[in-house]
Queue: 3 jobs
Job 1
Amino acid sequence: MTRRLADVSTSARLATPGEGLGQDELALAARNHGLPLEAMRYDITPPGLHYILTHYDIPHVPDDAAWRLTVNGRVRHPLSLSPAQLRTRPAVTTRVTLECAGNGRALLTPRPVSQPWLVEAVGTAEWTGVPLRLLLDEAGVASDAVDVVFTGADHGVERGVEQDYQRSLPLDIATGDEPEVLVAYAMNGQPLPPQHGSPLRLVVPGWYGMAHVKWLRDVTVVDTPFTGFQQSVAYRIRQGPEEAGEPVTRIAPRALLIPPGFPDFMSRTRVVAPGPVRLEGRAWSGRAPVTSVEVSTDSGATWHRAELEPDHGHRWAWRRWSRMWSPVPGTHVLSARAYDEAGNAQPLEQPWNRGGFANNLVQRVPVFCTDPTSR
C-alpha cells in the first residue's frame, strides 16, 4: 500500500476536553526548551538558557567556509557571500528579546496541539551581524519588489507539505532601520551555536521568533506577496480552520516575574518566609516601548505600580522591574502586567485563537508564605 506524506503528517487540531499531553507534544517539548525563569536575572541570556524552538532538524554544517548566502530574485546584482565575507562588512550589535509566537499555548482551553509552551519561551541576547538593508542596497533591489523571502536550511514536512523553512518580510521592513534587520553571525560575542542558527540567521527586532529564520542560506526579493506555508498557512491568528486569519507579526507586551523564594519540586509553588521580599522580573513589547508595569499579590484583586528601570538605549530588549512586598503566612497568587507606549496592555482574560499565538495573558505565580510559629 502506497503511503502519502499526508499519512505521516497530521493536520492541525485542538485537544479534546480533558485530553492530557500526548507523546507527540512530549516529543516536541523534549527537543525544544524554555528559559528557566530564574535566569531572567541575567540582562543577557547565556545561549544554553535561551529558549529554543526548532521546527525540523538542526542542520549539520561541517564547514562554515563552504556555506553561501545568496541574495537574488528581483535585484540587479545578485550576491553569493561566505560567512567570512559577511564578517568583513560593517557590523552592528543589537540587544534583542526573542519570544516564540506560541508562548502560553498550553494554558489555553481548548489547547492547540503543538509545542506545549507555558510562559518560558523567551530570551534576550546580543546579536552581531550585517544590516540586511546594506546587503539589499548592494544587490540593487528592483522597483517592482514587494517582499523579501528568507530560506533556511532546515527541511521537513508539516501538515502534509514538504518544505524548507521559509518566511518573508515586506520590503519596507526588510530595508528599514527601525527596526534594523540583521543577518547575524554572532550571539553574545561568540559564533552562533548550532541550535541558534550557525553559521547565519536572521534577526528581526520586535517580531515573534518565527520571523528570525535560522541557518539562513537564501534571501530572495520577489515582486508578488509571498504565500509559502509558514507565511499563509501557519502563524495566522484565526478562530476557525476555514479563515484566512491575521498574520502574526510584532510581539505583544508581556511582564514575567522572577519566581521569588524557592520551589516545590513537582507543583513549582514558591515558598517564602514572612517579611520583606523583593519582587522583580522583566517586561518587553515589540509594538512600542514599555511604559509601566503593575504587580498584584492577591490574584489580581488589586494592582500596584512597580519601579521600571530605564532601557539604557536597548529599545528591543526587556526591561527590569521591581517592587517590595511583605507577605503574611498563607497562600498568595502573584501577577505582573505590562503596558506599552501605544496603549497595549496584557489582558486579564486571554482571547483564544486556533494556533495558540500571541498569548500574553498575565502570569499567575502561586506562593506559599510559611508560618514560623507552626513548625
Note: The first strand starts at residue 69 and ends at 73.
Job 2
Amino acid sequence: MTAFAIGSPAKLRHPEKAHKPDNSIQRKPGWIRVKAPNGQEYDETRQLMRGLKLNTVCEEAACPNIGECWTRKHATFMILGSICTRGCAFCNVETGRPDQLDPHEPDNVGEAVAQLKLSHVVVTSVDRDDLADGGAAHFARTIRAIRAASPGTTIEILTPDFQKKKGALEVVVEARPDVFNHNLETAPRLYPRVRPGARYFTSLQLLSRVKELDPTIFTKSGLMVGLGETKEEVGQVMDDLRAADVDFMTIGQYLQPTPKHAAVDRFVTPEEFESYATLGRGKGFLMVASTPLTRSSYHAGTDFEKLQRLRLANRGHF
C-alpha cells in the first residue's frame, strides 16, 4: 500500500509522515511470505463488510493474515471510524481528522457477527483523542449489540489507551468483554520514535486497572519485534506485563507498510520467536503466542478456548 488513499491521489493517507525521508522496504525472508488473498469465502466476507459499511483492521492495517482469516470468515472489526487521531510510526491506518461516529455501527457489527456465525469475535478501534470519552461508550454499545445479536459469541476487544479520559475504562469494563486487549507494541525506549502519542506506563496501568475492576476478564497485550529492541528489553516488557497480571502475550514480526513508516531493523527468526514463547511461559503467562506472523487477533478464537482450559487447570488463578 502507498502513503496515499487509493483512488484519491491528492489525499495523503499519512500526512504526518509526508516530510519524513523514505526508508527502503527490505525483502521478506521465506518464512514470512503469505499467499495473496482470494477465493469465494474471502469475497463473501469482503462483500458483507462493504454492505454493512464496516471497517476492519485486517484491511486498514494491511494485515498479512487477511487471506487466511477472511477465507475462514473471521474478521476483526474496527469501530469508531477509519481515521485515527494519532500517527504511530508502525501503523498503516489512515490518520487525520476523524468523521462523526456512526450511530448504527454497533448494531451493524452485531448483525455481521450473527451472519458470519462467529463463536469468538475481536473488536478494535482507531484512537479517538477528539472524543470526551475516547470512544468508550461506543465500545460498550458494540459489546452489548453483539450480545443481543449473537448471545453465544465470546467477545474480545482491543482498545486504545484512553489517555486522559477519566472514567472511560470503567465504562468499557462494565460491559464485560471476555478478553480485554491493549497492546504495548514495543519497548519503552522506542516509544518516542515508534509510538510518540502514547506512554508506556499509561498502557501498563490500563491493563492493571482492568484486573482491579474485574479479575474474571482475561487480559492480553502484544509486542512487535524487529524495530530495534533487545532481547533484554523484551524480557523486561514481559516482567512488566506479569506485574500487571496480564494473562496472555502475543509477539509478532513488525512489517513496514510504506517507505514513510519506521524501517524494519531486522527479521527475527522463527527459532528466536520460539525462545520468546518459552521465556514468557516461564515468567507465568497463561499463554504466549510468538511467531513471525502472530498478530493480536490471529487465531483469537482458538486461543480463547485454550485460555479457558488453562485457567481451569490453574484453578484459583485469575
Note: The chain has eleven helices and eight strands.
Job 3
Amino acid sequence: MVIYLSTPKTDKVSEDGENDKLKFGLSSMQGWRATMEDAHSALLDLDNDTASFGVFDGHGGKVVAKFCAKYLHIEVLHTEAYAAGDLGAAVHRAYLRMDEMMRGQRGWQELQALGDKINQFTGITEGLIWSPKASDSNDRHDDWAFEEGPHSDFTGPNCGSTACVALVRNRQLVVANAGDSRCVISRNGQAYNLSRDHKPELEAERERIQSAGGYIKMGHVNGSLNLSRAIGDMELKQNKFLSPDKQILTANPDINIVELCDDDEFIVLACDGIWDCMSSQQLVDFIREHINTEESLSAVCEGVLDRCLAPSTMGGEGCDNMTMILVQFKKPFAQVKDASDAEQLTGDAGCSETQ
C-alpha cells in the first residue's frame, strides 16, 4: 500500500557540472510519497576519458538504491572487461555484482551504514536521499563474501531498486538498464529510447518468471512487484538451481551501445515518476524548449519535476518520487561515415543491443 503525505515535499536536491565534453544537470524531489526512495550518481571523471550517470528507483525501501548509487560505478572500474576497454561487459558484470555484494556480513553492514532507521517492512536500516561524489570511489575492493560475523548468512535485502546507467567515452555511449527507469536520447529533436521498460507482461519476461516458478497477478510479479528486473529483492532470487539471469526476478541488464554523432544533443535518465507523466518525445520537446532559456540544466530538470507533480493524489500519476539527469553533449562528434551509421537509431529502442 502506497502512503502519501497530506501535502507534497517539493524541496529539490539539484546539481550541475561540466567538463570540456559534457555538461549535466540533475534534480530529485520526494513529492507526495511518504519517503524518498530514489538515489542517483553523476561522475564526470570515472576515469580520464569516461563519465558515468545513473538513476536508481527504490521500492520497499531506499537502501538498495543508495547502495547502487555508491558502489555500482566502482564495480564497473574494477572489472577485467573495463581494463580491456569493453564498457558493455563491464557494466553488465557490475549489475550482477550488486546482488552478490549485498549478501553476507559486509553486505549487511554496508546496508546498515547507509541508513538511519529501521524499515518496518524490510527490517533494514535506512536513511535520506544520497548521491556519491568522486572522492567516494576510494573504496577497498575485496571479496565481500569472506567477511565473517553474526550476519554471514544474510541472504540479502528484500527491498530493491531499478538501475539505469549511462557511460560516455568519446563517441561511445553505453546504456544499461534493469527495471522501468529509462534513458532517452535526443537526435536532432527526435526522441529515441535507449532502454526498454522491464514489465511482467512482456513475453520474454513472462516466460522467464513462469519458468522459474513465479506467477503474474494483475501485472505484478508474484502479486507484489510491477516490474520484472531489479537489483535486490532477494526473496525472488532464491532458486539455487538457476543462474542469476533465469531467476523470477533478475538484475541482468539490457545493454545498448551507441556511436554518437553530430545530431545527438542530449540524453535524459529518469525514474518512472517522470515517464508516468510524460512520453519520451514530450520530455525531449520540453527540454529543447527550455534548455537555452534556463540558467542551468538543473533548472530545466526542476521545471520537469514541477510540471509532472500532481495537484492531488486522486489520480496516482505525478505522485511518485521523481529523479532526472540531463546530460548535454558540448562538442560536435565526427560525422557519421555512411548512411548505415546515420540510420542506426530507428524505431523505438533503435540501437544495437548486447545482452
Note: The first helix runs from residue 63 to 77.
